[in-house]
Design brief:
This protein has about 325 residues and is α/β, with parallel strands linked by helices. The chain contains 13 helices and eight strands. It has two domains: about 60 residues, no CATH class; about 240 residues, Alpha-Beta Barrel (TIM Barrel), CATH 3.20.20.220. The protein starts with 8 loop residues before the first helix and ends with a helix. About 45% of the residues are buried. Bound molecules: flavin-adenine dinucleotide. Its cofactor is FAD. Pathway: Amino-acid degradation; L-proline degradation into L-glutamate; L-glutamate from L-proline: step 1/2. This is proline dehydrogenase.
Amino acid sequence: TFTLSNPLRPAILAAARSDRMERTISRSKLTRKLVDRFVPGAAEADAMAAVRALVESGRFISVDYLGEDISHAGEAEETVRAYLSLLSAYRSLDLPATDGPAPLEVSIKLSALGQSLPGGEELALVNARTICAAAEQAGAWVNVDAEDHTTTDSTLRIVRELRREFPTVATVLQAYLHRTEADCRELAGPGSRIRLCKGAYKEPAEVAFQSKEEVDASYQRCLRVLMEGQGYPMVASHDPALIAAAQELAAETGRGSDDYEIQMLFGIRDGEQRRLVAEGGHVRTYVPFGNDWYGYFMRRIAERPANLTFFLRSLVSN
Ligand code: FAD
């Protein structure tokens, strides 16, 4: 499923950045069907229907308003508005207050909040702050997603700044990057929340491990650092070996079910998500919604040869 076993992954991830491919693929009706598997819909109401069902099944959620790499500040404003509206919709769920992990979260991408525009770091910080303040009011957590490696330093600076005011703000570290084990050490302190994932972008060998074996081994090392640390590890993976490793490390480091969580994506391994909840663990499902599904969808296709075959067939018969 990672680079070595999927030789087309780099090409698909390159296509994920192509406007021409986006136009072709978005027109295909069959592709839409496959998109629906990973994205519950374009409207906030679609996301909330999915959220309601997930919460009823005992899962936590993190909703992402799809968007990345914007080119005008106006698009960032629209993204902020979408999150404020979503956070007020969270209130309709009427969940009881809890001392443990917050069941509701939003995931934000700084590139959708202006990070790459001129003066963008400040703009993204201001926009993220607005979302964090609304999330605090709604009793929800905020997670800052990780994007490609050219953004990592800027993202970590913004997260550090946000955490001064909103200490529960979380971020994501990607095990495929060489730097991540050191970042885990630095960010495993008390109160920190870190989502550990393998990493979904096309990255050069100078900064990232390229084979599944190396990425998995790095993930295991990073996981140990986070589990032995003082923060709240969020284990984002569908990989059965890594989930088993997380459970063993949690037992070894004396973590109870409120002291870490497993995270998976909407539409992937739903049965496994339910099984983990039935066992008494916390599972948070990442729910993306909105019109800008192309980049997200292509990264899911790149991860899995079975999805890829289905997808190519749908293009040929288009
Ligand atoms: P893999 O080795 O890809 O897969 C292991 C097994 O899981 C497969 O054998 C298969 O059984 C199943 N599986 C995996 N993917 C699929 C699929 N698409 N369809 C069906 N079955 C599948 N990446 C970032 O770069 N930044 C982020 O901020 C980020 N946030 C994430 C948040 C969550 C909650 C999750 C779960 C992932 C996130 N990712 C993010 C993506 C992540 O980096 C990986 O690209 C993705 O999770 C695939 O890696 P894996 O650990 O599931 O293992």
